[in-house]
Amino acid sequence: MTEETTPHTQSEARTDGGTASGADTVAIDPWGSSTIDDYRKLFDEFGIESFDELLPDVPHPHYLMRRGVIFGHREYDRVAEAMQNDEPFAALSGFMPTGDPHIGHKLVFDELIWHQQQGGDAYGLIADLEAHSARGISWDEIDEHATNYLLSLIALGFDAEDGTLYRQSTNREVQDLAFELGSRAKFSEFEAIYGFDGETSISHMQSVVTQMADILYPQLADEPKPTVIPVGPDQDPHVRFARDLAVKMRYFKVSKAFASFEASDAERPLLADAYEALTDGGDEPVRCEDAATWLADTDAAPAFAAAQSSAVSKLEAAGKEPLRPRVRFFHRHGPEDAFEAMIGAIEGEKRVYDGHIDAFELTVADAEELARAVEVENGGFGFMQPSSIYHRFMSGLTGGKMSSSIPASHISLLDDPEEGYNKVKSASTGGRATAAEQRERGGEADKCPVYELYAYLLASDDDEFAKHVYDECVNGERLCGDCKEQAAQLMQSFLEDHQEKREEARELLSELDIDLDLDRRGPGGAH
Fold first, then answer.
1. Most distant CA pair in the chain: distance in Å?
2. How many angstroms separate the CA atoms of 227 and 355, rounded?
3. Which CATH number fits domain 88-249+382-527: 3.40.50.620, 3.40.50.300, 3.30.565.40, 3.40.50.2300?
4. Residue 455 gets which letter from DSSP?
5. What residue spans define the domains of the chain?
6. What's the rounded Cα separation, in Å, for the pair 319 and 409?
7. Is the predicted pLDDT of residue 17 greater than 80, yes or no?
8. Would 251 disulfide with which of 205, 375, 404, 461, CB 3.0-4.6 Å?
9. EC number(s) per UniProt (predicted)?
10. What's this model's pTM, rounded to 2 decimal places?
């Protein structure tokens, strides 16, 4: 048993994805059927952070977090901090109604519901514009699937009276926000992020901008706040694009600076080093020309050679200007009144230039909050970059990826309970060729779709039970027939209970302000 395939239990909460390594590339496609062969490569190639270091900071973590099913994040520490301090935060996830909800979708349902239970504002949306434009699903089919998704979400515990449920196509606020975001989105970005080309329909591109609006929508209520988007890693392109647009929509860019000139991200640490080295605690200011001499005589790592050269040139050009740390408010766009308001809002020493303001008595964090407040007061959105968490894909019951188009590979939340029982009984396993070999060598639970059912769903919040099943398997005490029988019975009971609760949810769903029977025409148009 290698490190890559160690099980995820309460006592062993490893979060590197738990899959065998060996893939040369990682392909991420929100509409394709690609799988992630090595989740750890996402950390290096796309900047996704490992969840394990953050886990101790999450109050009452969900069992999907404890067992490493949730393996990565982007800036989830903001959300965790809001939970710890009982501050506002939100969670949002969307569901594309192209088929029946199945047990793979339950991961997202559970994550959204858990965040709501932790005090977050929860948003569940039906991505019907995406389904119609990207997959060519008819509006009648979308209506049926949308109803089924929402019934399962409510049956699993989503508080529809406290949370927000909506359809993209009927939410005017989302559509208006999408229009504004579209003013900052360039076709070159669609090409680079999604591979769109001259054959991609305008409706498909429009649906993407609408998804960006969905992701930022929770921040329209009351005030900007940390917002988490629980997704599979294939949806990361949407998260990255939304984070970029959130920044582009901001009136002000806040950064550290050291002189009147603008420094790059690579140059700023070098300027900081020069300032610290030349500061003697006296009243004499550090001059840019002196810093240029010091920096030119300092050996820099090869990776910083270009930044060192450019920083020296800028310092030399600044001459006798003092080199002094400050926070810079750069006015990107927005009304001139916002710039004037920003000048007035900064207390203490400041310098006003054409297009930016330097403040000498603020931290970067305080400056960010001030810039956001001034922006909102002057008609802007003040968006925070959305956070995200990433969960592993469930394996198909027949091996490979779980797919809605392969009925035997998944269990629909609408399946007859007896059919669910039979699918589990017919599932592939990580067992050995014979019972004798299984007893001697133990099973391979980390390669077993049936064990995944225990870890992801059937063991629920009981970590000890999940660990017990795993240990019995790998120690050769549990044979596949008995294991599948137990899992099949648990699955049957789960489906029976879930479908009873779905029927109870129908009346509640009918009372909600969400139109599930749209009178729309249109043939659809898959890209």
1. 83
2. 30
3. 3.40.50.620
4. I
5. 88-249+382-527, 253-377
6. 69
7. no
8. 375
9. 6.1.1.2
10. 0.87
Contact 307, 323 (CB under 8 A): no
Give the integer Cα–Cα distance in Å for 510 and 306.
Answer: 63
**Is the alpha carbon torsion for 412, 418, 419, 423 positive or negative?**
positive
Tokens standing for residue 83: 């939970």
Tokens 């886990």 — which residue? 55
Closest CA to 104 of 492, 452, 393: 393
How many C-beta atoms surround the C-beta of residue 480 within 10 A? 19
DSSP labels, 160-193: TTTSEEEEGGG-HHHHHHHHHHHTT--HHHHHHH
Q: Residue holding tokens 């239990």? A: 9
Contacts of 6 (CB under 8 A, 6+ apart): 12, 14, 18, 446
Residue carrying the six token digits 């993209």 = 168
Q: How far apart are CA 445 and CA 474, in angstroms?
A: 6
pLDDT band at 499 (very low <50, low <70, confident <90, very high): very high
Owner of token pair 């991420």:
28
- Give the position of tokens 């076709």: 187
The tens digit of pLDDT for each residue in 327-352 reads 999 999 999 999 999 999 999 999 99
